[in-house]
Amino acid sequence: MSTTPGTPTHGEPGWSARPVRHLYVHVPFCASKCEYCAFYSEASEGELVNRYVRALITELGIVANELAPETVFFGGGTPTLLNCRQWEQVLDALHRLGLDRPAEWTVECNPATLSLDKARLLRERGVNRVSMGVQSLDEDLLDRLGRVHSRDMAFRSYDILRQAGFDNVNLDLMFAIPGQSLETWQRTLTEALAMQSEHLSSYEVIYEEDTPLYVQLKAGRFDVDEDLACEMYDLLVSTARDRGFQQYEVANFASGAVGADGLASRVCRHNVAYWRGRSFHAVGPSASGFVGGVRTRNRANTRLYCDTLEQGERAIDQRDELPPLARAAEIAGFGLRMNLGWPFADFVAATGFDLREEWGDDLRWLVDQGWGELLSDRFRLTDTGLRFADQVIERLLRPEQS
Ligand code: SF4
Fold first, then answer.
1. Which of 105, 113, 123 is closest to 161 using CA atoms?
2. Which candidate, 85, 86, 71, 88, places its Cα nearest to that of 25?
């Protein structure tokens, strides 16, 4: 299919006439700050959390008429830090606004902040998926990362989730943690998989500027061992696949029968929407949304966020409208993080551009490197290519073009 760059077919044709199908809600509070974390969050403090809840409900009211959510995702921060009364206010608002019946509704949880009452409340009111940040099951490494929970709390919270009726749970793990050996990683992986969650996510530690871990790295307190990180990643992929998980993205693994779309039934539909370049609204301090090709970011300051919402306005402080080809390039890169790669027809439907025409040289280069595979209906990355997905994304970007 041939398309002409810049025509109105690019992006999501007629998006404004269609509701947005995905909603992200950012909860910007944590019990304390982890050593590696660069997300916007701060220590919770009673009255500010109440103020945030009121402001969030106002913001939800502003975007509600553009939404018909198929997926809702509460991330953070630590959403389970809200107490039951604050959760009830948010859940009541979502119900009033008709936003509480998505097919998939995820709440992120920290094992130190979950009670059976809270888990039951969430489950009864429609939340049907929980993503639990475990990171490691080794006490020393949990300390090293500055996590507030112990390994026992991870097991206990997992039991609480099952008791409350959750049958779709993700465990989040980290590897290549300073001081972590291949054996320690294998032990955590084996124990985590024995818990039999429906989904597993696992990311290599990233050294973000201004985090304590980054400062320690720069000060020479430890070294990064890239070869060991690669071994850990290979172990992750082979172990998860051996246990019957489908790897559907660089760092994500799901159980369940594979459907007509080629994806296991327990994939995170919300994240799939991101990787496929679909529109989503994002509310809460620092939350980044993407609607009709326009990327927005809310103020990354909870007090200023509340001040603005208290005036009845959204607290957006950044708005970028990318040229169509630049936007399509980003979408190309994100979609190639998925094992299915990009079916050519889906890419045209999502962006209006043809992957083979605009990125033909890049695709051939990736094939020559052994990083990519050109099939009759799609392009996808090989196992080696997936490991270098960030470099692939860099190569595909078209920042200067419209
Ligand atoms: S709990 Fe999550 S969001 Fe909070 S500081 Fe730790 S990594 Fe960051």
1. 123
2. 71
Task: Measure the CA–CA gap between 112 and 109, rounded to whole angstroms.
Answer: 8
- Separation of alpha carbons 101 and 164, rounded Å: 19
Rounded-to-integer distance, Cα 266 and Cα 259, Å = 10
| Residue of 29, 27, 56, 64 lying closest to 43 (CA atoms) | 29
Domain containing 134 — which CATH number?
3.20.20.70
Tell which of 237, 254, 275 closes a domain: 275
Structural domain contains residue 228: yes
* Separation between Cα atoms, residue 369 and residue 363, nearest integer Å: 10
* Number of independent structural domains in the chain: 2
Does residue 205 carry a pLDDT above 60?
yes
What residue's CA is closest to ligand 1, atom 2?
77
Quote the pLDDT of residue 210.
83
Q: Decide if 73 contacts 270 (C-beta within 8 A).
A: yes
If one counts every other C-beta atom within 10 angstroms of the C-beta of residue 139, the result is 12
Bridge partners of residue 379, in order along the sequence: 342, 374
Say yes or no: 25 and 135 in one domain: yes
Distance CA 114, CA 130 (A): 11
Q: Answer whether residue 4 shows pLDDT above 60.
A: no
Give 4: exposed, middle or buried? Use CB within 10 Å, 0-12, 13-18, 19+.
exposed
Concatenated DSSP letters for 78-117?
Answer: -GGGS-HHHHHHHHHHHHHTT-S--SEEEEEE-GGG--HH
Residue nearest to atom 6 of ligand 1 (CA): 34
Question: What's the gap in Å between 289 CA and the centre of ligand 1?
Answer: 20
In this predicted model, what pLDDT tens digit does every residue of 226-266 receive, in sequence order? 999 999 999 999 999 999 999 999 999 999 999 999 999 99
Same domain, 75 and 197: yes
Is the sign of the CA dihedral 166, 235, 112, 87 positive or negative?
negative
Tell me the longest C-alpha to C-alpha distance in the chain.
58
Within 6 A (CB) of ligand 1 lie 30, 33-34, 37, 39, 41, 76-78, 110, 133
What is the distance of C-alpha 285 from the center of its chain? Answer: 16
Domain hosting residue 355, numbered range: 344-396
Tally of CB atoms within 10 A around 192: 22
Among protein residues, the one whose CA lies closest to atom 7 of ligand 1? 37
